[in-house]
Amino acid sequence: MALPKASLEDGKFLTVFVPTIADITKPTLAEINTPLVALSDYLTADGFKITHSQDFADDDREASPAVGQLPGQEKYTDGSLQVIDNTNISTEENVAVQKLTKGTKGYIVRRRGKDNTVPFEAGDIVSVYAVTIGIKTPVAHAANARQMSTISYSADPSSQDETATVTA
After folding, report:
1. How many other CB atoms sit within 10 Å of the CB of residue 37?
2. pTM for the complete prediction?
3. DSSP strands (E only) in 86-159
4. What is the spatial distance between Cα 33 and Cα 27, in angstroms, rounded to a whole number?
């Protein structure tokens, strides 16, 4: 049997920030194709971070010498966005830093596997994170480096990790 083809991810992510989504399991084209921030334009190649994990509870029984585990609560932690930050550079846009300020609530929608120049389409499988933006921290200066910042965020446990489908 032949191995399935592997595909490179470079240029195959589309990430946006939108202020409202009525149903995060079924975001509509109208909700996500007019984003407040086109995050893909500002995110570094490895700048999107979130940890999705699940706790487990021991399932020990008096009648059994073995201890099993039961799936417990899911959680999202360590959310951060490393973005190009054009603060004090008057000739360049800085939408990500200007719009994603501490306390801002909204949704990060993320698709992979299609060129990021292709708009969202009905049927796309996406991740939708209900987020609250935290603090912005400038990234330490280094020689020959871009001016960047890291923006922290928290994600609600109801967020969808590639389990939402875009609808018309």
Report:
1. 23
2. 0.91
3. 105-112, 125-138, 148-155
4. 10
